[in-house]
Design goal:
By secondary structure, the protein is an alpha+beta fold. 47% of the residues lie in helices and 32% in strands. The protein contains 3 helices and 8 strands. The strands form 2 sheets. A 5-stranded antiparallel beta sheet has the order 1-5-4-3-2. A 3-stranded antiparallel beta sheet has the order 6-7-8, with no helix packed on it.
Length: 177
C-alpha cells in the first residue's frame, strides 16, 4: 500500500515537473518569437503570471521527487516566496506605465486588447492572432484621458468609448476573418 502511494506521488511529481518545463519552454519561445514576429502578450501582466505558475509547479514537484531536509525546505520556500513577491511587484508596476484594457467576447473567441501609455495617453489597439499573443493593429486617433468603456455589441463586434480632448469618442472593432 505504501509503495503504491510512493509511486503515485512520484508520477504526480514528474507530471508537475514536466508541466513546469513546458511552461518555461513556452516563455523562452515567446521571448524569441516576440522580436521576430512583433507579437506581445494580449495583456503584459501575463508574462509575470505565467512565470509565477512555472515556479509554483516546479516548487510542488521538487519535494515529491527529492527527499529534502527541513532546512532545505525552508530555504527553498524563502526563495520561492521572494521570487513570487518580486513578480507580483513587477505585475502591478508594469500596469502603472502601460495600462492594459482587456475584454473577452461573450462567446470567448475574441479578445479586445488596448494598451495605453499612461504618460502621454497614446493608446494602441492589439489584434489577437495567436491565442494569447497579439500584434499591434492601429493607434487610436486621439490621446486618451480617463477610463475606457468596452461593450460587446455581438460575439464579434466591440464598441470602445473613451475620453480625449474633452470629448467622448467611440470606435468599433470587428473580428470577422
Amino acid at each position: 500500500m505504501m509503495k503504491n502511494k510512493n509511486n503515485f506521488m512520484n508520477i504526480v511529481g514528474w507530471a508537475l515537473f514536466v508541466i513546469s518545463i513546458g511552461i518555461f519552454t513556452f516563455q523562452m519561445g515567446y521571448l524569441f518569437i516576440s522580436k521576430k514576429y512583433q507579437v506581445e502578450y494580449i495583456d503584459d501582466r501575463l508574462f509575470y503570471i505565467i512565470n509565477i505558475f512555472c515556479i509554483l509547479f516546479l516548487t510542488l514537484a521538487i519535494p515529491l521527487l527529492i527527499n529534502l531536509k527541513q532546512r532545505m525546505k525552508f530555504i527553498g520556500a524563502g526563495i520561492v516566496f521572494i521570487f513570487i513577491m518580486v513578480h507580483i511587484f513587477l505585475l502591478v508596476s508594469s500596469n502603472q506605465a502601460v495600462k492594459n484594457i482587456t475584454s473577452i467576447s461573450p462567446n470567448w473567441k475574441h479578445i479586445l486588447s488596448i494598451k495605453e501609455n499612461v504618460e502621454d495617453g497614446a493608446a494602441v489597439y492589439y489584434r489577437d492572432y495567436y491565442g494569447i499573443l497579439a500584434r499591434p493593429k492601429e493607434r487610436l486617433p486621439f490621446d486618451t484621458k480617463g477610463e475606457f468603456q468596452v461593450e460587446w455589441l455581438a460575439n464579434d463586434i466591440a464598441a470602445v468609448t473613451y475620453e480625449a480632448k474633452g470629448q467622448y469618442h467611440s470606435t468599433i472593432y470587428r473580428y470577422v476573418w
